[in-house]
Each structure stands twice: as C-alpha cells, then as structure tokens.
Amino acid sequence: MENIHILGVDLAKRTFAICATDKNGYVIHRKKLTRPPFHKTLSDMSPCIVAMETCRSAHYWARIAQAAGHEVRLIPALYVKPFVKRHKNDSIDAEAIVEAAVRPSMRCVPVKSGSQQARAMLFRTREIFVRQRTQLINSVRAHLGEYGIVLPQQRRNGRAFASRCRDELDGAPPEVADMVQAYLRQIETLDFEVAALEVKIRKGAIKNAEARRMQTMPGIGPMSAMAIQAFCPPLENFRKGRDFAAWLGLVPRQHSTGGKDRLGRITKMGQRDVRKLLIIGAMSVISASHRKGYCDDPWLAHMLSKRPRMVVAVALANRMARR
Length: 323
What we know:
With 323 residues, this protein is of the alpha/beta class. It folds into 3 domains: 97 residues, 2-Layer Sandwich (Nucleotidyltransferase, domain 5), CATH 3.30.420.40; 94 residues; 109 residues, no CATH class. 56% of the residues lie in helices and 11% in strands. It is built from 13 helices and 7 strands. Strands 3-2-1-4-5 form a 5-stranded mixed β-sheet, sandwiched between helices. Strands 6-7 form a two-stranded antiparallel ribbon. Helix 6 packs antiparallel against helix 7. The longest helix has 34 residues.
C-alpha cells in the first residue's frame, strides 16, 4: 500500500471496490471492502490521489479522505462511462475511474462541506413539502369535484385553501367531510413547515455577506441567493462568468460540424434548482417592467421588442448568472 499513486473507488451502500495503480498506471491490486475496512484503509494509506464517482455519499467519503491527507478527485459518472472497456462490474468501474482520473483535462467536482450539504438539504426538504402540499390540495379538489363542489386552484397558501374548503363542506356527505378534514390537517401542517423553512432561508440570506450582495441585482431574492450558496461550487473555480452560465445549462446546445455553427435550445445541464430560480427571477424583472409600462434597461427593452418573453427570460437569466 506504499507505492499507490491513484486509488480508484467504486462507491456503493455497503461494499466498495478499489483499484490501486502505481505512477506508471499499472494496476497493483484490486479489492472489495465494506464500510469499516474502507475507512481504515483510507486512514492507514500513505497520501495519494483518491478518485471516486460523484454520488450521494461521495462528498462524505471525500471529506474522510481529505482528513487523512489524500488528494480527492470526484468525477461525474458521465465522464467515467467512456473508459469502461467491456461489460460492467464493480472492479471494472473502479479501474475506469482510475483511467478517467489520469486524464489531465478531466473536469472534477469540488468537494462540498457538511454545512453546504445541510443548506442543500434545507432546499430539498422545502421542495418536497411544497410538492406534497400541492398533491394533497389537488386530491381534495378532485374528491370534492365528484360531489359538485368545485374549489379554486390555490397551491401557495394551504391555510387559505383549508378555510375556503371548510366553508364548502356543507354540501358533502359526513363521511366525505371527515376524510377531507384529515386532508386539511395535513395541508395546514405542511403549510406551517414550509413557512418555517422559508424563514430559515431568509435569515440565512441576511447573515451571509455574499448572499446580501447578490440580492442587490434585480431578480435575485433570498431564495435564489441562498440556492447559489447551497448548490453551486465556489465561483472562483470558474474562469469567467460565461463558464458559470454554461455550467448551469443556460447556453445553447451545439451540434456544429464542418465549420458550420448549429445552435439549439439551452442544454439544461448543471444545477436545475438554481437555473429554475434564475429564470423565475428574470420573469419577475420582465413582469415588473411590463407593469410600469417602460423598461429601464435598453438591452432588455430591445430584446422584448423582437423576442418572446420566455426566450428573453432565459437570455436575461444567462446574463444574471454571468454577472
């Protein structure tokens, strides 16, 4: 274990496959380990390069390896796949990870800290609760629609929907009313939890200096600013603003050949949550200018005069990301 230059690790829930190579790229040994022996192996090894695919536990093990003095390279699974020679098993995947890590032009994912992953979990939890609240509201509307009770669509305020629904329950049978009450209790609970999580996000945006600075840009609010802090790598890792916009998937997809540039729709690569929030923020800027009757930004006014609003919103989100 002393001559290892790169250790490729194929992560899993319980059993990990490792492939160790020397400086010349020759395989020294292959092995399968469970979680405790793998943790001990990382601690006992002399410092080397530990290469892993990005997955749900990759950042945790990357922090463990960094604490043991190793250099960590997290590689997206999409970039590892071309190096799989034939068939597929854990040992072959581990060797492919090593070969991908050797490439000097390989793009690696920065290791996230525990606090950054906690912020990401905050956003994910809020998103799940909002989705569940919407499902419950739609279920109540569908059930009551069978009895001729048509309720308006109201997804953002669960308590307002619950109060309106209780006023309409007189025309439903008692058994149906009891079941709907159970739905409404769940809706109100989720509404309370979503509101509490939004308060945490706003407080975090107030305490974070970078988030406060980002909110000075039109279209960027506490949610967008904290989402960038939670999901995006350090912005210093990008050479220029356009690289960050490309990482978010806000640039056209290229299919160019023979000297002819063919540009299509946006790639939708990168982080979906941040991209969605930037586009929503851009739409809010466009809607505000529409309500005022004029636009302060000459570029935006020129774009709105000749392009559809959604296309302009994506272009504006691209410019916001680059800024």
